[in-house]
Amino acid sequence: MQTITANNYSVYFDSKGYETLTEMLKPSHYSKIFILVDENTSQYCLPHLLNNLATEIEIEIIELEVGEIHKNIATCTEVWGALSELGGDRKSILINLGGGVISDLGGFVACTFKRGIDFINIPTTLLSMVDASIGGKNGVDLGNLKNQIGIIREPKAVVVDTQFLSTLPQNEMRSGLAEMLKHGLIHDKEYWNKFKNLKNLSTEDLNQLIHQSIEIKNEIVCEDLTENGIRKALNFGHTLGHGIESYFLENEDKTSLLHGEAIAVGMILESYISKEKNLLSNEEYQEIKYIINDIFDRVEFTEKDINEIIELLIYDKKNEFGKVQFALLDGIGKIIINQETDNELIFKAFKDYAI
């Protein structure tokens, strides 16, 4: 697949990615290589990477526990300490081998260790391939609040190797599909239409869809790196989706949702709000609701759940001047940003979702 050029880095695919790594990772460029993994990627992905990593530089592995619950400053402190103890200096480089948690946290650690060292993202989940590893957003959660602490700084490179997808369970694959569906809804109706019959997609079709999804996100990010304008389009489904994800993460009586599972619900809810604001036709809304519900399991919400999720919205990092901001659909394939809504309409959206 063809290399995608971003603002200050490129996204390389499969063998081209490893050829590029070989060129980049020379003793004249870096003093030491650190590879950040979690328990899963250490077992299933690290051997494949090391077999394709040709370098004379010393390599150190730093392993984390699995899960969003560990995406916090405490874990960063552990990684900063490991980097120091293992002889990391300003000419070290950090390779983040994993999903969204590893990409987000590893990028943040690299940006802040010794006031900033280089890092490379090698995403191993579908979600991180099409979303977390692209665009330069690095950060961690603050308690149960998503991505409250962070910085925007782009990696030296991203390497996408779709062989890693064979290690994923089905729920992780579906989680990544949510962001791909979003890219079609906000930017490209023709791309969205390709997801209407997933059963007929081949492996090659999926690879091309991944490449196109990355192209869509990259195009938007290149236009607005610091999220002052059009990049806010990428927040569609995330205002309510992040609230849902945070709420389920902090409540012991709830089964935690994967990021994509929460965003799938958020996209249906925010599509309903778009419809009620006469931005989206009822026919388009019903199509979106049907396709997403055909892929993802329905999530149940009590009135108490909804009230507490709405209360969490005030902490959303997209808010401005104390007001909750939504990116809403202006028809399939188009978006309108900086939209406000009231709690009554949000409640109606949840009630319609349950039907």
Automatic annotation (TrEMBL):
Entry keyword Metal-binding: yes
EC identifiers of the protein: 4.2.3.4
Molecular functions per Gene Ontology: 3-dehydroquinate synthase activity
Cofactor(s) in the UniProt record: Co(2+); NAD(+)
Domain of life: Bacteria
Domain 3-dehydroquinate synthase N-terminal: 62-174
Transmembrane segments: none
Enzyme class of the recorded protein, top EC level: lyase
Residue ranges constituting the 3-dehydroquinate synthase C-terminal domain according to the UniProt record: 176-319
Keywords, alphabetical: Cobalt, Lyase, Metal-binding, NAD, Nucleotide-binding, Zinc
SUPFAM superfamilies xref list: Dehydroquinate synthase-like
Entry function: Catalyzes the conversion of 3-deoxy-D-arabino-heptulosonate 7-phosphate (DAHP) to dehydroquinate (DHQ).
Name of this protein: 3-dehydroquinate synthase
Gene for this chain: aroB
